[in-house]
């Protein structure tokens, strides 16, 4: 059988897609603006009061565009190991059926009272799933990988700027336009405030006296620290790929300046995460035969040590290490999460629960004068504990299986994107012990996965 002539093949394709060949190509194209606008304009979304809500908002056009492209005849690719993620999503949905359960030692509440929080998490998980599939299906012509890396690097700069703002103006906050549109009874709720009310820092007493801890533009100090670790490597890759010396110079300046808010944040999880990040990247380069990285690390460690001795930063670190006020609470919550997992090991409880009282007594509770004395959130002290408690072994296996499979699948990618991406995922695994991932940390994790996925399939690795 002779192959069809090129003109005949094009005509047949035109008839199959219901339009001209040019029109069909336009229909099949995925624009890059939904992803680009989320990342490039995130400070604007934060100021408007949309913040993390922008991921759910932009998921709507992304889903529409994906469906339209599929309907036009162009197949959609699913990320490697997506079955694991599907298992996780199914577990999240199924576990909603036990929202009404009141485990021992928790505050009793009707399922309807817990439904808004659980529904919010489910919506965000679905929205980030759409982001994952959409970003992974974009081509180099639609959104180049280098540009996506630049957007992530830009957000590290935003994180550092937010950290500096939190240091010098810890009480800075304002009422956002979205907040103004909400009824007074709604906007005053603590959870709603965390979503729509922009502020620079969280004020906490950790080392004696209330001090600001950077949070902008991510809402919480712990989220700020988590995103710091997830985004730092992308700034380095963006600078590495740039042909402008000025870009590399300012990237180095940004990294040096970032040390100050990273230390002042008093965020031990951030410090551990950076250690994991550096050690992993160094190990990858040493295994690749680039022994010079050891000399760079020794020099960097010497400079950091000098900075700790010659500046007040060393005293800040020492004071934080000597004051582990949160250690007892974290141990208490880990124990309660493990107990809850043992009681409902398969599907968990569908969401978090608040403890009845505190560590010493059920009579101790949260109050205006002591917000951290009791009624702690079980599952609020780390993604791993939240997964075990809320979604049981099935949900936890699906979540860990997906990102673990990604690390294994892309382990041979020695490109800049490959090393930075896998380093970010490794860091996220360590952060699961003390940080929760929803929303922005998980968004950066799925974008990292999408970059690794595209890098492995598009060739000409960057």
UniProtKB/TrEMBL annotation:
**Alphabetical UniProt keywords:** Membrane, Transmembrane, Transmembrane helix
| Compositional bias ranges of the Low complexity kind | 1-12
Q: What domain of life is recorded for the organism?
A: Bacteria
Start and end residues of each stretch annotated as Disordered: 1-23
Q: Which residues cross the membrane?
A: 44-66, 78-99, 119-139, 151-174, 224-240, 247-264, 270-287, 292-313, 388-408, 438-456
**PANTHER family per record:** LIPOPOLYSACCHARIDE BIOSYNTHESIS PROTEIN PA4999-RELATED, TEICHURONIC ACID BIOSYNTHESIS PROTEIN TUAE
Protein name per UniProt: Uncharacterized protein
Taxonomic lineage from the root:
Bacteria, Bacillati, Actinomycetota, Actinomycetes, Micromonosporales
